Structure prediction request, 436 residues.
Amino acid sequence: MRLPPEGARWLVAVRWLACLGVFATIWLASSVLGIVVEPVPVFGMYAIGGAMLVYNLLFWLSQRDWVAAERDVQRSIFLQIALDLISLTLLLYFSDLSRNPFLFFFVFHMIIASMYLHGRAPYLVAEMAIALVGAEMLLEFYGWIPAFSMQFPSDPPGGARLDGTYLLGVFVAFGSTLAITVYFTTLIHRYADRAHAEIRQKEKMVGIGQLVASIAHQIANPLDGVQNCLQRIGEGVKDDAHLTEYVQLMTEALERIERTAKRVQAFARPRGVTLQRTDVNQAVESTLHVLGTNHGVNIQIETQLGDVSPVHGDPYTLQEVLFNLCTNALAAMPDGGTLSLRTYALGSRDEDQMDSVAIDVSDTGVGIPRMQLEKIFEPFYTTRAESGGTGMGLALCRMLISEMGGRIDVRSTLGQGSTFTVVLKPAVPQAAASQA
Prediction:
């Protein structure tokens, strides 16, 4: 789920309110509360507020008629956040940064960066903020830059002195807060992306199922009529061996059409799964038994079955999914290679469910381009149309695994191969199940 490109414009709109808040806070702190009394920091903060207005105006002018690609939007958001971090650091410098309660306003920028930026960009933003604040604290502590202290009513005459231990504690708390904020916000964003993709996938499958069911129904009635007519014709020409043979061929062709329609309908509307305690290793071994041994030239199959607990799933459905993934892996190695199946416990490494069990289906084939990784689970999307691929296999696999409460992840490198990982939830212990 990618957030809309209007995020860059949204930041500009919100910043007008932020600039207004900056000027109001400076006036309140200097003229009403008397916390900031020296003219230099007051003038410096007003100058920074004016600079924020200027660069926000430039962003607004440049984006009024802006129709940009996603990369340009990412660059614009990153630049806006970077300028905001510099401005906020300078504002805090002129207003006793280490004791300023607005220090943790940096958290808002971490959340925005984690929502709108991808890859390592949010962590780069956090590192930038930590570096700016840390450098300001260090320079001020050693007296390399002048310090501007706020005068609170409880402070002693002359203002409070900088304490190294206090500064270190504030810096550690500040840095860890930003890092944790980016980590959890990014984690939630990834989880929302995955949930959104699964919802879209199910909506597509429901729509396709309705379409295929309608087509199959429209085919079934005339197909029955044609078969009945052909049967009557067969009875009339049973004395002619050639005509009887032709009728038999036509009957078999109609039966193939009927089977194909039912098979497509089964793909679009898969049978329900019966959830039970399922032995993953046994499902892998059964799949390999069905797969057979004749896989082409220079094909090797390796298995690494770990000591894993039973999962909450359907053994026959799991075999169907693994069989599909294995056949895809074999097709990705036309010149030979290694098909590897591995089972292992994720333990605490799984973001969604503790003690999940994973099954890796890996090949050393051609790999999948990065641009296609987001599309391979879409119905009817296939890279093997010339060899008879329908684009329904992976879509069906994801839907079946989703019905078992699991998920399928994929990672691939061009020229090196691909790995599909099926992750399933652990089965409820038998004692707990019997009590329930």
Summary: Residues 7-162 form one domain. Strands lie at 276-278, 299-305, 311-313, 337-347, 356-362, 407-413, 417-424. The first strand starts at residue 276 and ends at 278.
